[in-house]
Amino acid sequence: MDVFEAITNRRSIRAFTPEEVSKEEIEKLIDAARHAPSAGNMQPWEFIVIRDSRTKRKLSVAALNQRFLEEVPVLIVVCANELRSGRGYGSRGTTLYCLQDTAAAIQNMLLTACALNLGTCWVGAFREDDARKILNIPKGVRPIAIIPVGHSAEKPEMRFKRAVSDFVHYETYSK
Amino acid sequence: MDVFEAITNRRSIRAFTPEEVSKEEIEKLIDAARHAPSAGNMQPWEFIVIRDSRTKRKLSVAALNQRFLEEVPVLIVVCANELRSGRGYGSRGTTLYCLQDTAAAIQNMLLTACALNLGTCWVGAFREDDARKILNIPKGVRPIAIIPVGHSAEKPEMRFKRAVSDFVHYETYSK
To answer: Is residue A162 in some structural domain?
Structure first.
């Protein structure tokens, strides 16, 4: 799929069919993620691939009861490895770069999923401490997103977009 | 260009030819950016498009003297609009979501640039207060990246990548 087509066709999917997602498809998403740029090439990302129903149920509760997270074949919990980014860049690494780098990796995954005809959603609303306990995530590694991956059972319209003139400025900030 | 090809072919470019970048090309990058997902569809991004040589020179100094930033046709300074993300999500909005959302928008831009045969680089190392003064950026809007856009004068190799087994975990965090 053309890159611009993937960028514009991607939607946030919250309803899935029971159809499975293959190991090869997950590997393709991970491969896309690892090609994201990162500050100082630190690659400060960790991915936890979850198929276990009990774990998905617990995570859906940690995600403020977003129950669609337990009805999807796979969850990928993305973590920012603060230790890696902090090593070279101190607090700018732990509070900015590792969040940006993991976000770029996630976006690569979402676009690749779209090209593979898989549905995904970027879930940021969850209790990090609960996710940490459920998945045994050590200190210095921070869970920052839960990505459900499955086959879409819905076709959402494009959401409202801000007018370009509202957020593009020339030469200097204009508002 | 195929989305996976763009993801794997993209490189960080720090040397540019003098060839111009058209208004249409910049508009295409912005259009890609605005299709990124964002928490609650807040679209907490602002883009400042800069062609003025004096401004580029000042920004290159603010960016710890990364002089290639003054030798590129266009700089795009990306800002996170903390006011928008904070409105619905408080401190999680201002310190996490708006950084992730703008990062996803940037990654869309970098991939689209790659497909347009333009070179880019994600520059995060700069003094934010200096950039804020140079560009007259108001409080509540935070400059978080400088993206040079031009035609590449180099062909960097792919950087070293961590082994997949080092950062992919199954069911629970494994190290």
So the answer is: no
Summarised one tens digit per residue, pLDDT across range B127-156 is 999 999 999 999 999 999 999 999 999 999
- Interchain pair B47, A141: CB under 8 A: no
* A 36-75 residues inside an 8 A Cβ radius of B: 36-37, 39, 41, 43, 45-52, 55
Check pLDDT > 90 for residue B174.
no
- Give the model confidence (pLDDT) of A30-64 as tens digits: 999 999 999 999 999 999 999 999 999 999 999 99
**What residue type is A124 in one-letter code?**
G
* A163 min Cα distance to partner chain B (Å): 9
Q: What is the domain count for chain A?
A: 1
Query: Quick check: is B51 in a domain?
Result: yes
Q: How far is B94 from chain A (nearest CA, A)?
A: 12
CATH number of the CATH domain containing B80: 3.40.109.10
Residue A166 located in a structural domain: no
Binary contact (A8, B55; C-beta < 8 A): no
Does A3 lie at the interface with B, CB-CB under 8 angstroms? yes
Q: % helix / strand / coil in chain B, to the nearest 5?
A: 45, 20, 35
Q: Which residues pair with B2 in a beta bridge?
A: A2
The residue segments making up the domain with residue A113 are: 3-153
Rounded Cα gap, residues A34 and B41, in angstroms = 26
A10 in a structural domain? yes
In the beta sheet, which residues pair with residue A49?
A76, B170
Reported pTM: 0.98
